[in-house]
Fold these 2 entries.
Entry 1:
Amino acid sequence: MTDQAAPHHRTRIADMYHRTPTHRLDEMKTRRPPQTSDEHVGFNGKVAVLITTSVGTMWAAYLFSVIGITGIVAAITNNAEVVLLVGAISGYFLQLVLLPVIIVGQNIQGRAADKRAVETYKDAEAILHECVQLQQHLEAQDKVLDDLIMHVQKIVAAGS
């Protein structure tokens, strides 16, 4: 019973552990992820992104299929004017003009994706920081619980 009579040092978990919040968590609450539309690209860039997103649709695939089938039918039926027109549309316009425009649009979209990737990395870093602190807090609680269990075991053993 000498343990009960001795002065008891009270250990508070709050004294053992102090959380240091990261400012990133507050930022995460107030901002949205970077978007392609946030890029400052001017008129040409906006047109390039519009064309890039338009060409990347099923409606564009249907249109290009119609152009291709029209060229095949014209070639089979020996319709030289249509073959020439389809060849000009697909060979000159689609390949020589549309391709560079799509590349510009993809470059703009890529910059926005890069910014999102950096923001995601920073978010993951902040969450990791919080998880490490949570682990430290749990370890502090474990120590207090272990001390409490040992104290209770001593009291039980002394009373037996």
Entry 2:
Amino acid sequence: MDWLILMPLLAACASAAATGALFQPGSWYRGLDKPAWTPPNWLFPVAWTTLYLMIALAAWLIATTKHEWATLGLALWAWQLTLNAIWSPVFFGLRRLRIALGVISLLWLVIAAMIVVFAPIHAGAAWLLVPYWVWISYAVALNTTIYQRNPSEAPLSPSEQPRDA
């Protein structure tokens, strides 16, 4: 029965992942001044698939405990997934580099808090989140550097905004 809890957690991660699929880098991103240590495009789906599986598994390990902090841990989990889901639309969709930096910085903090809360509940769940936190640490540095190198990069003008079909 505990395995049934994993399915909605995986679905939630897939929903967050969908924003990355909907708001892809495209020519605008390719044209930005990026550092040499920017990862190759093929790495992102590989890394994120692995990370989302680990994120869902960590939440499942917490959700199947009766620990008094489990609710807090799962609330932090939901918060980080929400922040995760909105970063791609803000960065790639709206092209708001500074706002995206704020979103990902807050995400970094929430993941750190989640690891701290998860650790006394289930050490394995906390350790499953460490690679995610490291990846987001790298992403914060990358977002910061791209923002610094492209200070005049304007968001989409009203005429470039996506139209409802």
